From TrEMBL:
The chain crosses the membrane at residues 56-77. Residues 572-779 form the Peptidase M13 C-terminal domain. Residues 120-505 form the Peptidase M13 N-terminal domain. This is Endothelin-converting enzyme 1. InterPro entries: MetalloPept_cat_dom_sf, Peptidase_M13, Peptidase_M13_C, Peptidase_M13_dom_2, Peptidase_M13_N. The keyword Transport does not apply.
Amino acid sequence: MWSRQIEDQHYRFSSLRSVLQISAVKMEVEFQTSDKVPIVPDTITFRACRFGCREMILGAIALVLLFMCLLFVGLYAHSAVQLQEARTSARVAMARSCKDPPCLKTTAHAMELLNITVNPCDNFFQFACGGYTVRNPLDRDEIHDDILKQMYDLNQDRLMAILEAPPKNSMTWSSEVKLKDFYASCTDDFRREQVKGRPLFDKVFPRLGGWYVTNTTWSHHAWDLNTVLKYVQTDLWLNAFYAPVLVVDPSDPKKRIIRIDPAGTSPHMSWADYDKTGKVARDANINKVNLMNWINTFVEDAFTMERIIAKFTSTTTRNNEAKMLTLDTLSSDTQWKINFAAQISYRFDDVGVNGSTKVMVPQPEYIRELGYLMREWRGSQETLRKVHNYLTWRVLETYVQDLSSEYRHANRQLLVDLRRRGRQKFQSTQRYCFMLANRYFSIALGALYVNTHFDQKSKVKVTEITESVKQALEDMIQTNTWMDDDTKKYAIDKMRGSTYKIGYPDFMDNQYEVDAKYKELSINASDFFGNLLAANQQHKREWSRELREGEDRSQWIFNTYDTKLAVHWYWDEIVVPAGILQFPVYTHGMPHYYSFGAIGTLLGHFVHHLVDKRGAHWDKGGDRIDGEFGWWSKLTYAHYDAVRQCVVHLYNNVTHGSYDFNDDEKRTAAVDGDAYAAEAIAITTGIRLAYNAYKSWQKSKGADPHPPGLQYTPEQMFFIGHAQMYCYNRNPAYDLLFARSNIANEETRVNLALQELPEFSKAFDCSAPSKMAPRQRCTYY
């Protein structure tokens, strides 16, 4: 059965194969026949023309090629235009790019202080200043560091380099020569080691009537308190029993009057003083068996007198309103043991001071207590010896730093023993001598600083920035809702009429005027101690002139190299010294978004102080206005108080810490919003003024060049520039001390001011509610 099935299948496959073969032969014949028929007829007729097929195809191809050529030419021309436009745009972009050193330096500085891991909408201060502590760690002996301190330290280094450079003007009458000779004599350690303590014995002790330790024949009969006290107070320019100082006359700011303050104590002494006094005795060639007894008596006398003076100073009340008393009245209160008319007329010898001259006395009880003490003395030898030793000690304590190294070392050892904790840090000779040069030659030093380290263009540009900020304040006053019209008008008039001292006094451009201020001063490059005494006489002449002539509004309350900025209400002025117009707060060529954010916000802060609650108590001429409201109206004050209460509440909710208060408990320190409110309003308003001034500047002058690769907008850089002025680093102990003052620290100052400004939230796209964009804000202007 299986074999039959196989045969049947074989038959079927054979039949199928035959059919397929026949079909294949037929298809081959048909294909060969059909290939002879053309796909397209040999000719076609189109109206009356007959074209060959190939010619028509070639024509079509030519048309296509022509179209493609025209298209290519068009595209090429368009691309060339685009390329030219791109090149032009690139050239314009390069021209507007920040590529000059001040701009690049500013950008690099700003970027290195950032901490980009912090969200600026959470804590802007840490975002802007988070890198400062990393890049500026504190030295072992350092307790605090910030931007302005770094600037001042740099200014000091620059000034010391100027002092050590040869003078450009070699004339002996030149203030530069006198200044540099003074500094050279101070830093001449070789000469100091040669003379040791002899300047005291040769130039000072004879005028004191000798010294008990070195002169056992000292007699109270030949010693006159008033003669010695005049020499100590004026010729040596140090305080003993009291301190005469020049102050503004509260009844007439254009005048100066004399004020008598309690004074005449030094740091509490210990028996470590033996070393110091022993060296003085050695230099006097004393070789006595009982020398130590005399030293003990000297120290005990000085200590007793200073203890009495300190007690009188702390137990007598300082009056809120000082009394005006005649000099003869003060003399009478001391039983004429101190002749105040003789003392004060010796210091101010060409002003006409006499017994009827009135002086300001904040603590009249102190003078009376001094009188009671002197009544008890009754001129005894022991009493006068104590006074003599006290005055001698005041001289030693004041001038020991100006002697040879062993005296300075003994003085340092005393300070170490007194402080008794921590590692002590003392000034180098160069730093100490710079301090003295700054004290006696501040004008000459300031002129040299300006000539070397201040660009005149900076003065011009900062003046323009100031004018922009003033205009912003005027606009803000005009539109604010809490000032009435009369108050607005007075505020604008006062702000316009105020004086703005920028950079340095104009007279410093004239070297002859600078030199003339020191024409009566003689300096010897090889006699440092003699130079100190000569400089004291220069002080005496300057004080006499100021008392005689009264107000001189050409004076500056700061040195030109200081890194401060302030409002001076009773002169109705703002002072911006050249020292603060330095990088990174300001430098010529700095992008305006950063300079307005830095120096601009400071200017806004203090310009606002001219017309705020504090400024309202000083009129346009700088005269004090008594009363609760000043030149503000009662209505304006009431409206302002509502704004102020909002700010008080805002800052009262802030605490700093926690801090270790030397016990087991960690504590926080609260901010006193009531005390800080006026300053907080000035800071926040100052930022807004500077921002509005910058936007107006940008609108009229155009945008600043943008640094390549900078990812922040000009508006963002403005706020970064403001915050970075407050970057700081301080050790925990100083931070605790700062917190105990109950004022806002730098982080709070920056964050709370900026969170009140919608302009900031918009710049950084901070959505409410966030820490830097609260739902509720106080209304300022």
